[in-house]
Amino acid sequence: MIEHTVVSRLEGSLVLCASLETRELDAELNDVINKAKLVQRRLDRNSEPQGSIESGKYTYHYSINDRGDLAFLCICNRAYPRKLAFTYLSDLQTEFENNYKPDAYSSPILRPYALNGFDKYIQQTKETYQNTRATQNLDKLNSELKDVTKVMTKNIEDLLYRGDSLERMGDMSSRLREDSLKYRKAAVRINWELLLKQYGPFGALAFIIIFFIWWRFL
Asked: Which residues form the Longin domain (predicted)?
């Protein structure tokens, strides 16, 4: 279940819009929502474009737009599918950027929640994604799901209490990609070596026979 959503400007960590919660929240969820402000402050242009941060039974999922000036964040139950969460954020990003040009949120004197009129679209979209078992929703979502297998996951304690930074997520992701490439090359080399060991003697024998025939008759 998607519990809370925030759209913010990276510069100054200014909250532009957030979902309005009308229901009573339990203490843990309320604490997680309050910590979202701290998570936003750690985001900048050097942060990994997408990431997940675990906090108890909840997870923060965030996505930074291509311009590197907006962050879209949602808080979900740990059991909520991560792919759906990022597809939800992608929908919000597309609609927000279609409705608001950079001039609308780049002013240095802009007040917090200045674009909270976008909450109506957030609520409508959240309802679409809430019931992941509804056939009419899954038909729509299955065609839009993004591959998020490379999205890095951190723990909220590492981020907020141990001084870790979201920039390290990018470093970790880069190292994983480099290691993956290195192991892939090693696997190809090993496969070639196995093929040579398995079929090399037969190839060498065939070459000797062909050479002998060529030398004998030509």
From this structure: 6-122
